[in-house]
Structure formats: structure tokens, C-alpha cells
Amino acid sequence: MIFKANLKILESTRAMLKFFPRTFLWFAALWLIHPPPVLQAECHDADLILRNGKIITMDATRSIVTALAVRNRQILAAGNDSEIAACSSPRTEIIDLHGQTVLPGLIDVHTHALNWAEGLLRNDIDPGYPKVHSIPEILKQVSERSASYPAGRWILGAGWDESKLSEHRYITRKDLDAVSPNNPVWLEHFTGHLGVANSLALKLGQVSRDTATPSGGVIDKDDSGEPTGILKDNAQGLVQSVLPPDPPDLALPATRVVSEKALEAGLTTIHDICLLAAGIRAYQDAHKNGWLKLRVQMAPLVSNLQDAEALAKGGIYSGFGDDGLKFGAVKMFADGGMGAKTIAVYEPAEGEPGNLGLLIWPPADMQRAHHILARAGWQLETHAIGDRAMDEVLDSYQAVIKDLDLKEPRFRIVHAGFATPPVQKRLRELHVLVDSNPAFVYWIGAYFSKYGPQRVRWAYPAKSYFDNGIIAAGTSDVPVTPISPWWGIWAAVERREFHTGQVLAPEERITVLQALEMYTRNPAYIGFEENQKGSLEPGKLADFIIVDRDVLSVPSAQLKDVEVLKTFVGGELAYAKPAAH
Ligand SMILES: [Zn+2]
Description:
The protein is α/β, with parallel strands linked by helices. The strands form five sheets. Strands 3-2-7-22-23-24 form a six-stranded mixed β-sheet, covered by helices on one side. The radius of gyration is 25 Å and the shape is globular. Mean pLDDT is 92; it is low at 1-37.
């Protein structure tokens, strides 16, 4: 109802603008000085009222109010305590916030949450930071498993990062062979762009010095031409295809883990990216069973032209579903990862002469796939970190937008690692959106420097996106960085690198309000949900969080330590921090 009323106002202002432009401008100026009260005339019989708080609405003027009324899963009104008191009835539940801070529920548009949660349930060892700090610590875990497992049983782990290991080098086949000669081992890197196998695992995957390199992948070899055990990007499939299948009951419990961990961190919506059939089915079951309190957009993975054709033929497209679970964009990869040194660049990284990285798709095939999917109604999101990969994706997007005469496709680039001025110019002109990763500056900023100071200057920028009118969201890419959005909010404000504490590209620091925008308004827009989410305004979904400190006034170093006290989804309490004993 409220939207209909707003639409009418919009129509009449349009008519006014046509005939009385000056009068309109005068009204508009008055509007800005005295914003109309957010209280709705029909405000009564609220289900829930929050009062006596600091409610950061993130609306167009970034209003801060003290009270909020909720009815029927939506925000009914926002305003001061006495205004909102008028919305109550005898049945209304009242929460006195005692000055606590409330924010819209946070949104992360790029996670691999289900995959991460499955790993937590499935993996035999944890080779990731902060659990381990050196290769011997990883090998100790492998050797313990190999001593207790029967010969032939796989030992699996994920999350290692050589930049957090004291040796600062990849783990190798030989390291693993020394502690596990009779059990195959596969340890995935935290970026997902590479993994290491021991000799037995390589043998099972039929990887030898003579194996042809799969397209879009790298089999790392030593000076004598023998595989080192490191497989990058598509080459990982050689070993992944012989791993034991997941138990059929793994994905469903993993959705519960996803929902709990996300709500605890203050997320009320996530996009889960690169989903395959089992993941989509699990989310659907979880939603049907009623335990998926978190809202999820599912992004299926397309790895080749056949995938694209099959998805298009299926007849489903972006947006199908409901407020709780729906299909989002379709995900493709243009290049690899910085950790694997497989991002596609015009100039190689230091110490990597001749390595211009990988283009996972031949450009003509990528454009064909984009075209098929966009014509079928899919929003596109394509992983691209290097400048060469971004140009490939933008060329393709540009052609598809023109060919299909798309008005507002909201195509996305995932990461846009080195968003140099020429890249930003193209992003702006094509209205391409960015799923960015402020938290990478902290967690993996050490990788940036290998690409030279000119590219570090434009690594995961934020301020220049705001200045240039490019809409970017902040995302965790969990498990690449922890699921908590507070790491990203903090890193966007401070831009400190993990090892040195050095501020990388200080020009790109943004304010706390802008950082919050990257986790509320902007991701809502990216997900075509700006009319339902991203701010606390009448008519939008009542997704909000109560946090333990005033994020607008605490020292910025504390932003990473913010704790969520309560998370509400659709006006219902979905998470409450357990009381301290
Ligand atoms: Zn990702």
C-alpha cells in the first residue's frame, strides 16, 4: 500500500516537473531541509516496537531515529519515541533498547557459505590460520590422521595460506609423502584456486609428468618436470574428480550451520555463489523445513557452454523464488586467484616473468555463454581480478547489453581486484556493479605488492567507487575471509594489511557510514532488492540487528570487534547472543 502511495507521489511530481520545473525545485529544496516525517498515517496495531535506541536507518538522508514499529514482517514506521508510541496497541511487544544501536540487517552478496560449512563438517584436518602457523604443524595433523586411518582412506583439509605460514611457501607433494605415504591427501588452498596433493592422490588422479594440462588450469612442475603436487584452477579437477563422494546427508545439516553463523555475524541475507545441484536442493529442503531463517540468493555456477545452455533451457531465471530463498545471478570465472598467481594481467607480477595468468574461458565462448544466459533472463556475475580479465568481461558485457538492448541488467564483476582508472571508467559507463572485498586488504593484502605499487594503489578500492558513482558491495567471499562482515567494514575504514599493519592505498579509505552502505543499501541494489532491503523504512522487510556498541562513534579500530546482540529477520528474533554466565 505504502509503495502504491509513493508511486502516485512520484507520478505527480513527474507531471509537476514537466509543467512547473521551478516550483518543483523549490519544493524539492524544502523537502531536503525538512524531510517529511517517516511516520505513516495508518500507523497502528504494531506487532513490535523498538524504542529508546539509536537506530541508524540508512535511508536516503541517513536519518537516525530512536524508535521503530513493525507489523506483518515489515517496517511500519520509524521516528521518535512519542511518534512511534502512537503505533502501539495492547498486544504490541515493546523492546526498550536502553540506548543500544540498531542497523539494517547486513547483506553479503558473495559467499561460498554452504561449501565452507560442508568443509567444517567434512574435513579431517584444519590447515588454516589461526589454527596453524607453519608447515610442520600441518604435517603433524596429517601424520596423526594417517596413523589412525586405514591405508587408502583420504585425508582432506581446506584453508591453508602460505602467506600465514612461517616458511612462506606452498606445501608440496614431498612434504605430504613424508608423513602420509599410504593415504591420499588433498588440501585445498583458502582461495579455492589451488590445492596440494600427495603422490598417492596424484596417482589416483592420473597426474604425472606427462599429463596434458587441462585448459584453464596449471599443473605445477619442478625443475626436473615432475609435478610438485600443486594443481591450480581447472587442473584441480584431476584430483577433485576422484575424491570420495560427500555423504548424501552432508549438505542439509550444512545449511543449518550457514544460517546460524551468518545470523550470529549480523547478516540477514547472503548470496551463496557457485552452487551445484546438491547445494540448491539442500537450501530448498532447509527452506521447506522452516529452519532457514537467513534469506539466501542462490547463484548457480556455469563452467562451460553446455552448462550455460542447460541452465537457459531449464526455464528458470534470476529472481525466481520468494523473500526467503530465490535464484540470484549466475556465476562464471574469467581468471584465477592472486595466491595461485593465475589472475589475468597485462604486466606480470614480480618474479613471474612471462606469467600473464589464465583466461579460464576463450573470449568468444565467454561472450556466447553470457549472451545465452542474459537472453534467458539471468543476471550475470563474473569473477575477474586482473586488468586483462576485467577487460575480457567488460568487452563481453558491453556486446551483450548492446545485442539484447538490455536497459538495466545490473551485471556484476566479482572482486575487480585491480580497478585502475581505465577499468573504473568502463564500469561507470556500462553501469556494471562490483562485488568487492574490503577484507582482502587486511587478510591477503600481502599478495598485492608482488604486482607493483601502481596496481597496489588500485587494489580493492572503495573511495574512488563512491567518487565515481560506481555501486560496490563489500563481501567476505567466505571461506577466503571470515564470514563476519565486521572485518570488511573495519578494513574498508582502516585498510591495514595483516603482516605489517601498513595502510594500503590510504586514499581509498572511506567513512563508517560509507562502509555500512557497502553492506546494506548497495548489496540490496545489486540483488534487485532495494525496495525491500538495505534500509529501515516503512514498507521494507523488518530485517535488523542490535549491536553492542555505537558503530558511528567508537574508535575505528573497534569496528572488527563489534558483536551482534540480536538479529531479527522479518520482525522475528532469529539470533540472540547467549547471556554471559
Ligand atoms: Zn568467490
